[in-house]
Design a protein that fits this description.
single chain, alpha/beta, Rossmann fold, 8 strands
Length: about 220
Amino acid sequence: MRIGVLGGSFNPVHMGHLVIAQEAAILLGLDEVHFVVAAAPPHKEPESLLDPETRYQMAQMACQTNPMFHASRVELSRQGPSYTIDTMRHFVAEYGQDCHFITGQDAMEDISSWKSALTLLKTVNFAVVARPGHDQSTLAEFIQGTLSARYHNLKFHDAVTSQGGRVISFRVAGATTAINILETPLVGISSSDIRARLARGGPVKYLVPDDVERYLIESKPYG
């Protein structure tokens, strides 16, 4: 099986997450996409997060809209910080090497701060989505230039385009993995904006899945 793994705090999960997961599945021919809820993300302030179980429940609600989507508890079941390298080792052990970690441009540009980043790049495939206001070329320049320069033994083969130019792939030299840059609809929705709207009693309709909207309105976890 070809597996996609979309990790995040999902604080809360929103339509942008679903669009990215669906587009990655289409462009990369994925069979499933697993929404991995970070229990203790090392790059987030704990006080800004709802408890992991609540965020997982909302991810479950969101995943009910698509039979390819699955909410994952793998990081909730593990003690300590939620490191991507540990999560992806779990998925590789369960599903094999054809696993794709789905992430955004901001995270990719900060990957050198991740635990065992070089090992991760040589262990699993990446599917990277540009931030709103940017395109694939910015990411391509980062991968070919900055990322390669940070790790002297990280080299890439020449870019290969597919899906009518909507996927630009850089295969990692000496490994079986690739970084795939995806052209997707640029959905400028953020969890922080949704939290701010909810805090002031504003609407979030069409920003989050219907079931998640009902839960947020009824339970008011963000005030």
